């Protein structure tokens, strides 16, 4: 038994939603396109899970943030897919793929075949069990990747109001959920192995501003260590976490954000992989010409830096998806993907954006005391990356332009003094 489609998108996350919109813009016939997703809901803007969904009041919930609302485009509810003749196959996990036969096999035993496949399987969270932590299957541990995780987190957080949470990991999930927990009147201790938060992007100076801000709101930081085990009660609920040095920290709940791995497992041995992702060319095409890949799962040529990268951010998921569809639908017109890395985050009343590459010397500017400051990364006399907290629309636009144009910077002292007003193009 099976179904056949001209195009199948495997994965129903951000990239899938944006790819669907792009197909509709190009014009597709009813019944040609199918999206298969393990999740029970249509593609949505995943960033909402750690922001709007966790607000203490008037929290966002679906269907409010289906794609492509994040870029001001249409909100694609299940009705939208139906109206455009797109088959949305939800609650369906694909357990194997045969790229030679052009078929996918679902966990329920259905075979779905395609002419063109777009892989948009995103990533999975790393789990504490993978680091040998005992007791990590407790009831009150929360991860945050998908809709079901977010429902669980919201429920447990509500039960723990007035109580204590330990947040494991000092990256994006750690920082964003810690802020949400505080807003929900849960006291937070953050534990992570580095010397400061957001170590993949922030310098110690940038991190110090955010850590200070969090501390003023009652967050405690335990840095430079990891946990070894949990203390649990008879109901398999964690009551405390135990650190490597045997210190115990009481907890009514635990949130874990210790990174992700791209979901490439179905394609190992069938596609060329690189840097933990599926290798694609500038058209988002994999080593198999009938198969494209987009979003978190791809290792793509980053033209700007002559490098191959895997990026785990929503802007790239949206743009790479649109690019793959362009390459499929208008192969004669499409150029190579020419992406400028862009990341952002919002916590408490703070908000920052980053464009480019954080390489070379980091030059700070502005005034953290009024919550408006930034940083430029200058490598071999060239501006490579730009970060700004508390900017306005025009300033963020300028940040992106600078990171794209990479002007030379002759006077570092003046750059630190002038910040965005530095005469980059005299
Ligand atoms: P995505 O993870 O969105 O989708 C993958 C889909 O594939 C899922 O629906 C999954 O179930 C499905 N799937 C996987 N394997 C399957 C299988 N075998 N069978 C069927 N279905 C399968 N970025 C940013 O720039 N700013 C931000 O503020 C945030 N905030 C944020 C918050 C939270 C909580 C998370 C988890 C992530 C972010 N991100 C972010 C990152 C951003 O959301 C991420 O880069 C994109 O969702 C990636 O989109 P993809 O479509 O590639 O994967
Ligand atoms: P991350 O890579 O941002 O951070 C992982 C953190 O885990 C590290 O900073 C480190 O502190 C910690 N860590 C690693 N191993 C550990 C261990 N054994 N014990 C304790 N801590 C450990 O990953 P994340 O925060 O889990 O986020 C997951 C994904 O979601 C990422 O792809 C991220 O880009 C994405 N995301 C992005 C945003 C955003 O862009 N605003 C927001 C949320 C999530």
TrEMBL record:
Cofactor: FAD
Superkingdom assignment: Eukaryota
Top EC category: oxidoreductase
UniProt KW Lipid metabolism keyword: no
One term under GO cellular component: cytoplasm
GO molecular function terms listed in the Swiss-Prot or TrEMBL record: monodehydroascorbate reductase (NADH) activity
The protein's Enzyme Commission number: 1.6.5.4
Xref: InterPro entries: FAD-oxidoreductase/Apoptosis, FAD/NAD-bd_sf, FAD/NAD-binding_dom, FAD/NAD-linked_Rdtase_dimer_sf, MDHAR3-like_C
UniProt domain Monodehydroascorbate reductase 3-like C-terminal: residue ranges: 340-422
Similarity section: Belongs to the FAD-dependent oxidoreductase family.
PANTHER family: APOPTOSIS-INDUCING FACTOR 1, RIESKE DOMAIN-CONTAINING PROTEIN-RELATED
Protein name, per record: monodehydroascorbate reductase (NADH)
Organism expressing this protein natively: Ceratopteris richardii
Classification lineage: Eukaryota, Viridiplantae, Streptophyta, Embryophyta, Tracheophyta
